[in-house]
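Private note to self, pasted from the team thread so I don't lose it. Backbone tokens:
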């Protein structure tokens, strides 16, 4: 009893599939089967409701590239007419929706590199095929663990350059220096300093103030001509300027002699003549002559 399948296509049918729809003005597909150089794209990507058209097209292009292709922003901008800004935004869209992810790996030379992984189905992780050397390896966890080399204790941060020291570090002088450093962020938001950095820099500012430099002049020396790009270590830059631009001490000036003391007028108790003296008494002419003085 052989039952023939009426829906099975005849053997001699062409590989071109044509779907003819009523003439309603809608879409008609004229498809041909691909046998080489094709990429399978899911409708979840091609019809994604939240991705931009540029992001969808960029994802299709990346999924069609061979392994180890360069998919950096500059490389994509050199390939397509869209600029680096639009391409970077599209890559961020794909990364946010799971079509791209970035994994840090250690290269054979010991350098840490970032590898871009293209996911044709978000949430799916690469698995080894049967019979491959990686098939016997343990299943990779959902969140990849860091290599053992990255679990080493972090090296301490680089120390800040030394700064000048005042000859007489009075508390009031150091407090003026701390206030000046804390106010730098009002002139340049990049100069927001931490408490340890401020404590390290304060003696250097105090050394400037001790040399008769005004706070406004110190502030100008620290903030004038800063580079426009982001400052990686603003405290280190300020420490360098405090040491490199330290002005010399002011010239020595002999202290001025104290002003002459002028006593109040007193009335002489002998002749009633006025004279200057620290207290009431007799004038020089009315004072008795000490014995033995001619």
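Design output:
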């Amino acid at each position: 009893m052989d039952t023939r399948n009426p829906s099975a296509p005849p053997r001699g049918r062409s590989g071109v599939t044509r779907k003819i729809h009523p003439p309603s003005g809608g879409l008609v597909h004229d498809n041909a089967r691909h046998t080489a150089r094709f990429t399978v794209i899911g409708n979840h990507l091609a019809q994604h409701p939240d991705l931009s058209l540029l992001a969808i097209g960029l994802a299709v292009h990346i999924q069609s590239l061979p392994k180890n292709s360069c998919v950096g922003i500059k490389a994509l901008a050199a390939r397509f007419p869209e600029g680096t800004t639009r391409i970077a935004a599209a890559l961020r869209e794909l990364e946010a929706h799971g079509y791209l992810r970035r994994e840090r790996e250690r290269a054979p030379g010991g350098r840490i590199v970032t590898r871009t992984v293209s996911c044709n189905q978000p949430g799916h992780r690469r698995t080894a095929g049967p019979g491959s050397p990686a098939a016997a390896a343990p299943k990779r966890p959902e969140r990849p663990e860091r290599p053992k080399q990255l679990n080493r204790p972090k090296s301490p941060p680089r120390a800040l350059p030394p700064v000048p020291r005042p000859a007489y570090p009075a508390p009031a002088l150091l407090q003026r220096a701390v206030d000046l450093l804390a106010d730098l962020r009002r002139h340049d938001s990049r100069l927001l300093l931490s408490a340890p950095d401020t404590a390290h820099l304060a003696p250097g500012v105090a050394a400037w103030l001790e040399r008769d430099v005004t706070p406004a002049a110190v502030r100008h020396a620290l903030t004038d001509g800063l580079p426009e790009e982001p400052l990686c270590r603003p405290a280190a830059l300020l420490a360098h300027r405090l040491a490199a631009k330290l002005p010399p001490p002011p010239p020595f000036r002999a202290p001025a002699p104290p002003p002459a003391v002028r006593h109040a007028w007193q009335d002489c108790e002998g002749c009633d003549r006025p004279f200057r003296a620290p207290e009431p008494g007799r004038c020089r002419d009315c004072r008795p002559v000490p014995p033995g003085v001619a």
